[in-house]
Amino acid sequence: MNPLPVVPTADGGDYPPLSALNDLLFCARRCFLHRVESVWVENVHTTSGTLDHHRVHATRDVDVSGTRLARALPLVSHKLRIVGVSDLVEFRPNPNGPDFPFPVEYKRGKRRKWDNDDVQLCAQAICLEEMLGVVVPAGAIFHVKSKHRRDVIFTAALRKKTEDTATRLHALLATRTAPPPVLHPKCKQCSLYRVCMPELLAAPAAYRKAAAKLFKPE
Ligand code: SF4
Prior knowledge:
This protein is an alpha+beta fold. Helix content is 37%, strand content 18%. The chain has a single domain, classed as Lambda Exonuclease, Chain A, CATH 3.90.320.10. The strands form two sheets. A six-stranded mixed sheet has the order 1-2-5-6-7-8. A two-stranded antiparallel ribbon has the order 3-4.
């Protein structure tokens, strides 16, 4: 069995976290408010999610039938210019070479209609490939509430979407203006709903005009 790899220190100290990709695919405005304006509002979903991640990270690394489990593994990709911490990486034995890393991301809710979780997981795989020099073909999302584990194959299309999202993220973070709100049913689930007030856009013209001015720098 190979020893656990030595993980290089993330020297990209100013790289955004992997979760920003997830945020961006959910809503560009939410991503900007979180990452550039440091606006963070806790709600039951964000707190439960944070506690789930802490619980997973605090569990001891163990061997399960030859598979080593590494929790809270620091990740970095200089190609995507992103850093993060994995919930769990299973190192599956490979008789012909280095163990296969298999990342597992823990999520509280059900599978979302937007494949933002898959992009976040794929970004972890790209980090592991870059750090360890191996191919990571698949990983899994573990849905904490339903205890359902769903395998995700890192197809060429998903890898391309992940790279494109990272490019969009860096472009967004380089701008100085928050994208305007776009009222959508998913806004009701967003912890920033009360701060963002997206319904202003659906309001009468005078409100819309005033709201539009708010997002235009002088
Ligand atoms: S309330 Fe809607 S528009 Fe505003 S940040 Fe959240 S998801 Fe985006």
